Amino acid sequence: MKKTILIAMLCVCAIGVSQEKMVSKSAKVIFEASVPSFEEVKAVNKNVTFVLNPATGEIASLALMKGFQFKVALMEEHFNENYIESDQYPKAVFKGKIEGFDLQSLSADAKDFIIKGKLQLHGKSRDINTAARISRSPSGVSISCNFSVNASDFNIEIPNLVKSKLSNKINIQVAAVLGSNRQ
Question: What residues does the Lipid/polyisoprenoid-binding YceI-like domain cover (predicted)?
Fold first, then answer.
């Protein structure tokens, strides 16, 4: 009887450990679509949710479009109303996997990994492959990456009037520090 209870307890503990995810609700995403000689077109969202399953290397991230803040309020208004249409498309979602991820191999020195997944934005989905720098930090795991997308790939139209002031190529930077969170 004692052995049965012990085995059952070990199974429950193993299931609990295997379901542990690492989470950040304050990951940061910066995007820039500036062109030389014109006003900077750049926004920051510091409230992005980012989840990592350390057992599988699977990741997911969600950014609310209205969370992006610009230096110029009018740019923010145009971004939400005319370009990204935040009321109709309120979020961007990324789901993917870190190739060859092994939590035990991480140290304070960042290692290079490849992240492959899909970005869903403005009603469209595109494959993303990017290099990421991942390390252990005192509070968990730090992940940072940079990649570019084209606004036209997501049916985001740039009017002719501002085409010379706004790049179709959007550079995106992501930074997250993830801590343990039992689900």
Answer: 45-176
CA distance 166 to 52: 33
For 84, which DSSP code?
A: S
Q: How far is CA 58 from CA 21, 22, 55, 162, 175, in A?
A: 10, 11, 8, 39, 16
Q: With respect to residue 8, please indicate whether it lies within any of the assigned structural domains.
A: no
pLDDT in tens, 72-104: 999 999 999 989 999 999 999 999 999 999 999
CATH number at residue 125: 2.40.128.110
Number of domains in the chain: 1
> What is the CB-side half-sphere exposure of residue 173 using CA atoms within 13 A?
9
pLDDT class of 159 with cuts at 50, 70, 90: confident
User: Does residue 7 lie in a domain region?
Assistant: no
- Global pTM reads 0.84
Q: For residue 92, give its domain range.
A: 22-180
3-state secondary structure of 167: coil
